[in-house]
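Exam review. A common question shows you a sequence with its structure tokens and asks you to describe the fold in words. Practice with the pair below. Do the first one on your own.
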Amino acid sequence: MNVTAVFVCLTVIVILFRFLHKMKNKRLYELLEQFPSYPTYPLIGNAHLLFGAYNDLLLKSEQLLQPHDRLVFWVGPIPCLVLKKYNDILTMLNQSLDRDSLHVADEWAGIGLLTAEYEEWKKSRKMLAPAFSSDMLTKYVDVFHEKASNFVEKLKPVVDTDVEVDVLDYVLNTNLDAIVENTMGISMESTGKRGEEFCTALLDGFISVTERLLSPWLHPHFIYMLYLRLTGKIESIKRLQYLPSKILRDNLNDSHNQKIEPDGVDSSRTVIDLLIKRRLKEPGFTETRTRDELLQIILAGVETTALNMSYLMLMLAIHQDVQQKVYEEITQLVSEDETITAVQLFHQLKYLDQCIRETTRMYSPVTITGRRTHKECVLKDNTIVPANMLVMAVIHLAHHDPELYRNPNKWDPENFSEEAIAERPKGSCQLSFGFGPRSCIGARYAMLSVKTQITHILRNYHLSTHVKELTNDDLKMDLMIRNKIGYPIKFTSRQKVKV
């Protein structure tokens, strides 16, 4: 059989398979006709439209969606409904409670609070809620202050020099130290020098998962595992999993020595204690499953908050008038030698709060979130979304909607004044932490962490940068929005600053 004959046979098989699939899923295809789509090809769908666009994925996505509010994009043979309008996104987040089923991140992050199906997620959310209660957040503040003070100390070698440093690495390590100590009850020093390895592996993971998402041929598990081994990325997965594995092993040994009881309620327990309690109580909650849950808590608390903090510092360095206003708000609240309390951080730094929320809007830590419909869902204009449909909400575009923001591409803290918020529909202001039943459990933790760090930084240093502004040309997107040139900041001691 020659090559031509093989090609013809394969083509016939693909066409026949698609015909049979359409006949079996007639309702699905009828509903999909309501939505615009680009031309598709067998096996790859629309994926060819994103070939070679990794570093410019944000711009490419905006170009593809620019004429459409809703778009069916075929990820290989799988149809995906892409949404960019806040009202569609809110409807889907309320009605669709299961995560998407492509499972492109499972090899890196496993199954946990971020990726589990709804029923399993509900168990995890209920179990972990005590660790993120108001009482526990208040207790975390002391650790936040300690780590922020260490951050200030680490910067001293570059203060009052002409050196600009990329602050992301500093913030990543600070956040990792804080979340491990707050939610695991241990110091990073006890884990050995694994912090930098973890953060490097974390970035490798985000890049690899994005590459897989854009490459349908990497979706099958066995092909992706072969790819990971051939490229050496499997070692990054091992480095990423080492830290939570070590924390879990050490604490499991302690739990046997202390004879932790699986029953009873103790709201003072850390995340690791709550996980071990569930591990002892539920035989099906395996050690691997426990490790993955722990890993996802660390992932969510490190990378997203670090990027938000880095963008915030860069924005304050660019917008000197805003930086001065935040600095004055802090110094009017407490004197130089006073420690800011949890209550003050939560409720009294209102302008700083506006700056953080505006930064989250402009440079959302979560650019895309996925759901799968377990039944047919109805959008506000009565358009029906098919059951068992993969839905992707593009948070970044929703946050730059001119219907919601007068100048959506300009960083302006006044977008989150009380008056501005009141003018917008409920739920449309901040989609980065989700909406509805599956909203992020750590949203208040992240806000408290960023506020503590920035108050320490601004009380000690003035920020400046050579960067004049950021445009979409400066940004790249994996699962998150990153600045191509980093986050360059020059630090000057407050005593040497003339305002």
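Now try the second one, then compare your answer with the model answer below.
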Amino acid sequence: MKPKSGIFELITPDLGDTDKIELVHWNSKLGDSVSPGQEILELVTDKACFPMESPVKGKLTQIIKEKGSIVRKGDVLGILELFESE
């Protein structure tokens, strides 16, 4: 069951055995509403590009890692403010 309100941290997923993960593009900007399944950002390793989808309905309220940042598994990339369930 999803929370009715609060925040959700966008976390760098486990992309396998790689030393370098780069955040190459934010598809959403601050204040944008997002829906489950919507591509929010793109991560690239030396092997592939990985679009990251929103798992929740909410609004992007904070970008913690900017485009071009090198990130690791578990890093917080951004914060979503959850929308209340209808």
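Model answer, second protein: The domain at 7-82 is CATH 2.40.50.100 (OB fold (Dihydrolipoamide Acetyltransferase, E2P)). The chain has a mean pLDDT of 91. Full marks require stating both points clearly.
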